Structure formats: structure tokens, C-alpha cells
Amino acid sequence: MSTDTAHGNVIELAPRRDARDARDARDAVGGATPDRQPRTLIIRVTLWCADREIHRQVGINDAMPLTELHRVLSTCFGFHDHAAGSPWSFTVGPRVFRADGCAHDVLVGPGDTAIYTWGLWRMFIEVIESYPRDRGTPRALCIGGSGSLPPDGSGPQFDPADINAELTGTETITSTLALVDEAVSDLINRSRIFDFIPLLQALDLARPVHLDDRTRTVLDTLPLEETPEAHDAFLVTVLTLSSLVDADLGDNVIEATMAEIGWVDDEGGVLTADRARGLCAESLRALAGVGGYGTGALPPVERLDLYRYLLRR
């Protein structure tokens, strides 16, 4: 919390005004802005109950129809069976949005707020962040939250993995995992981190790869280590490398995934990313030898062919 109370109470009006002006301009021409590029919005959604608050943080494609956003929010809160058939709407000030339109008609950028109503439920939505999308970004992803319905524990408890599996869809998960190596499929199922599914879709695993015979021979031997822990560490590292994220985020992905499948360090604590890479160091050296890792790595487009070859059946 800021210790400067004067600054802490200042509302940044410029971003709100810019967002409002953008929305007004869009309304004036009757719909979405032509040639507009979709963005990812990170939204915080709060449901106030009599005795508690329930929160969800969700990443969404701002080009999704409001009908889809309605489904996403109902899935994230787990109350889609509680108010089936009830009327729903999104409200910004005096304006009410229902089935027509897209998410960006209601929420444009950081600081924007709206009220989502479904039956007797009323939720407050605030945009926390906005950034450009890429092919690997899921249309919707629950990235955090707290609380659940009902509070006595008789219903499903908050579990982002279950929520994201439902958002992704069982059919999509099954068809995507059918394209990957059996060990990779097993790892994703054990971790229940289905955030990897959009990544694998974006990799387009069925596309031809252009690798010479020597490179294929090296990749066919990986991983070189024999222990289950090292095998998992190598596959998690390759999945992370294929996402082309920065080093800090990559470390977070490795640590979170290894934790979800039950691997810990010798003291029972978190297995760090460095330690995980150490478990499969020989394999990573071999991968570096063909340009898939380290300071001498190939350009991203060429590296992706290596990762496709390793990950697919």
C-alpha cells in the first residue's frame, strides 16, 4: 500500500477517458472497430455473498462474443447449474449489453469496470491488464481466485486445473493429446495443467519438420537419463522451451509443473528450475548440440522444428 495518501487516492482519469472515448467511437459506427487486432484482457471478477467474497482472475480474448464470456464466467465460478435459463447481462453505467456484441464492447482496457448479472447473481468485473495476443494464447484461462459455491464444501472446490480443463473442452484436450508423444500426454494428464493444450495446438505438431539425419538421430535418443524424475524434468523443460517465454516465466512454469506431478527436492521443498534442469543436464547438452538449447541455439523458427519432433508421436 502506498504511504503517500495523496497519491494513493488519485484516480488515473486519462486511461479511463481514453477507454471511454474508444468505446463511444466504436458505438458511433455500430460495432467492432474494422481491422481491430484482438487483445488479451486480464479481468478480476468478484462475487459478493452475504458472508464472504468469491474472486476469480481470468484471461480472455477480448474479441469473444458476450455469450462466450457469459459461459466462461459461469464455468469459472462453478454456478452454471444454479441459474440455468435465467436472464443475464453486462452493464456499464446505464448501458446494458446482452447477447449481441463482443467482450471489447464492454471492457476495453485497464481500469474499465462492468457488472455481470445472471439471475440473482451480481458480479463486479475490473480489467487489470491488456496486452497483444499470439497464436498460443488460450481464448480463456482461469489464472487465480479464491472461494467457492456453496461455502460448506458440499460442492466443487476452487481448482484452476479443473476449470481450465472445462474451458478447454474434453474433446479438444483428447484430440490434441492424440498428436503428442505418449510420455508427454501422460505428463500433462498427471500434472492436470491443461494450459499446455493451446501451446501444443499453436505448435501445429502435424506440420512437416525440416531436420537433417544427424539431428533426428540425436533427438531420437532423448532423454538420455533413465530415472522417471529426469524424464519428466526433460519433457517439462522442452514444453517450456517451445513456448518461447522469457527465462523468469520459464522457470516458474518448470517449477509449477514439477510440483504438480509430485517432484520435490531432497529436503522435501520446491524443486527449483535449475535443479530440474540439472536432473536432465546430459540431455540438454545433447539438445544444445543440435541448436535447441543454450547460448548457441538456432533462431526461434528453426528451434520449433526440434521441439515439434520431440513432442509429437
UniProtKB/TrEMBL annotation:
Residues 14-27 have a biased composition (Basic and acidic residues). InterPro entries: MM3350-like_sf. Residues 1-33 are annotated as: Disordered. This is Plasmid pRiA4b ORF-3 family protein. It comes from Corynebacterium pygosceleis.
